Amino acid sequence: MRFIILTFLLVVLTLPTRSFAALDYGKQSLVGADFSGSDLKGATFYLTDLQDANLSGCELQNATLYGAKLKDTNLSNSNLREVTLDSAVLDGTDLSNTNLEDSFAYSTQFENVKIQGADFTNVFLPKDIIREFCESATGTNPITNRETRETLECDYI
Predict the structure, then answer these.
(1) pLDDT 10s digits, 71-89
(2) Are 77 and 99 in contact (CB under 8 A)?
(3) What is the pTM of this model?
(4) Distance CA 112, CA 91 (A)
(5) Sign of CA dihedral 21, 18, 92, 94
């Protein structure tokens, strides 16, 4: 009986997993890291260097990316709902088809960001960023079925 229990525990404990939820990656250099398709709900990336990282298709709801360096990072098709992006640097970042609903990104630096199909519902952004985004905003988010231009309220600025 002990052999069966030990074998079962050994198998369960050694199974590979793609869940990185509730992990703390704060103040680390994760340049080029591949987290694609991972469950990162609630994970902390406080002041983390994620340049050239692949976070496409990730579940990042309630994660903290405060002050993170996201230069040329792929966040396409990810769930960034209720994420803290304050003071993060997004230069060349791909946010295509990403859900950013209810995220905090007021003092975030956005440059050359791809936003086709992104959902910015209830994301408080400075007016100059909204104007810039509205110049190129296209597409509909595949999860929320909201048009990017509508979520940015482009017709009201």
Answers:
(1) 999 999 999 999 999 999 9
(2) no
(3) 0.85
(4) 6
(5) negative
